[in-house]
Amino acid sequence: MNSKKKEPLIHITKRKALTWKQEWLVRLAGILIALILCAVITTFTTHLNPFGVYAAMFKGSFGSPRKIWVLGKELAILLMVSVALAPAFRMKFWNLGAEGQVTVGTLATAACMILLGDKIPNGVLILIMLIAAIVAGALWAFIPALFKAKWNTNETLFTLMMNYVATQLTAYYIIKWESPKGSGNVGIINAHTEAGWLPTLAGQKYFLITIVAAIVTVVMFIYLKYSKHGYELTVVGESQQTARYVGIKVDRVIIRTLLLSGAICGLTGWLLVAGSDHTITTSLAGGRGFLGVMVAWLAHFNPIAMVLSGLLLVFMSRGAGEISTTYGLNPSYGDILTGIILFFVIASEFFINYQLHFRSSKGKEE
Amino acid sequence: MFNFVTFFPRAVVQSVPLLLGCTGETISEKSGNLNLGIPGVMYVGAISGVIGAFLYEQKSGANFNNFLAVLIPTLACLLGSLLMGLLYCFLTVSLRANQNVTGLAMTTFGVGFGNFFGGSLIKLTGSDVPSIALSSTSLAFTKTLPFASKAGVIGKLFLSYGFLTYVAIAIAIIASYVLKRTRTGLELRAVGENPATADAAGINTTKYKYFSVCIGCMVAGLGGLYYVMDYANGVWSNDAFGDRGWLAIALVIFTIWRPNLAIFASMLFGGLYILYLYIPTGTDLAVKELYKMLPYVVTILVLIAISLRDKKENQPPASLGLPYFREER
Question: Looking at this predicted complex, what is its ipTM?
Answer without folding.
Answer: 0.85
